[in-house]
Design brief:
The complex is a heterodimer. Chain A has 3 helices and no strands. In chain A, α1 runs antiparallel to α2 and α2 runs antiparallel to α3. Chain B is 78% helix and 0% strand. Chain B contains 7 helices and no strands. In chain B, α1 packs antiparallel against α2 and α2 runs antiparallel to α3. Chain B has 2 domains: 129 residues, Four Helix Bundle (Hemerythrin (Met), subunit A) (Up-down Bundle); 40 residues. Chain B is mainly α. Classes of the chains: A mainly alpha, B mainly alpha. The interface between A and B is large, with 73 and 85 residues.
């Protein structure tokens, strides 16, 4: 393993930043969800990197749990988006202001 | 220039470019397709890190299950491209880029100066051993059996919640 650990961490940071920018600037709720998946994935990459470099299996166990939470979050989030779309006929997050009064 | 570094550079370039494409494409379908490409590149990186089980689960769960869900919902809902709405769009864009740049500087500072990550000397044989499904399964069913059960209940409740949310007609 001749690759320095910093390379993986910088790659993970870049992916996390791109996900953050996507969450802030995109207006389509589904794409915002995809950017959240990107951020979760970059966190997973960091966990696997440290797990592999430090020789500790617990990081990979935690990645397993993160994946199950991501699956649950995607299912619930997309169900909420479908429900909101039935009410408002849009997935644009600028127009979804149900709680605003 | 060894082969491992070449593979790393190729996969990480694919990952970064597909990430940027996910954020910048106007069409949601294109974003989803590039996100799948990103998941595959990450699976390659996991293999490079000797995490075979996680790589396979990444392909099956993310590229297989979650992205099918995403594409299905896009097919159901998204009739048109994202509208270039709002006069304050420019402001939001600069705000987002500034916030992201600040976070990036922070992370890079932590990586290079705060945590002595360059002191880590990797142990290749050990990392091969811990990437196996047997090791992870052992940990999951002994030391982490309670979180494992909680994750199972979480998935069950998510399934029920998704059905309840998507089923009923709101008025």
């Amino acid at each position: 393993m001749n690759i320095p650990i910093e390379y993986y961490l910088i790659l993970s940071a870049l992916m996390f930043i791109a996900g953050t920018i996507g969450v802030i600037i995109r207006r389509n709720a589904i794409v915002v969800f995809m950017c959240i998946e990107l951020m979760l994935n970059s966190a997973n990459l960091t966990l696997v990197t440290f797990s592999s470099y430090l020789g500790n299996a617990i990081g990979q166990v935690f990645v397993f749990f993160v994946m199950s939470v991501a699956a649950a979050e995607a299912a619930i989030g997309l169900a909420i988006i479908i429900m909101v779309f039935r009410n408002k006929l849009t997935v644009n997050i600028d127009e979804i202001n149900l709680f605003k009064w | 220039m060894n082969i491992e570094l070449i593979i790393f550079v190729v996969f990480s370039l694919i990952a970064v470019i597909s990430t940027i494409m996910v954020v910048t494409r106007k069409n949601a379908i294109m974003s989803a397709v590039f996100l799948i490409l990103n998941f595959f590149a990450l699976a390659g990186l996991y293999l490079l890190l000797n995490a075979q089980f996680i790589a396979v689960v990444q392909i099956i769960v993310y590229a297989g299950a979650i992205m099918v869900l995403f594409l299905f919902v896009i097919m159901l809902l998204n009739q048109h491209n994202e509208p270039s709405s709002a006069n304050n769009k420019r402001k939001i864009k600069t705000f987002g880029v500034i916030i992201a740049a600040l976070i990036f500087v922070q992370i890079v500072y932590i990586i290079f100066y705060q945590v002595p990550s360059h002191n880590i000397t990797p142990d290749k044989l050990k990392s091969v051993e811990i990437g196996k499904i047997g090791t992870i399964g052992n940990l999951l069913y002994t030391e982490y059996v309670l979180p494992f059960l909680v994750a199972g209940f979480l998935l069950l409740s998510a399934t029920i919640g998704a059905i309840v949310l998507a089923k009923k007609k709101f008025e």
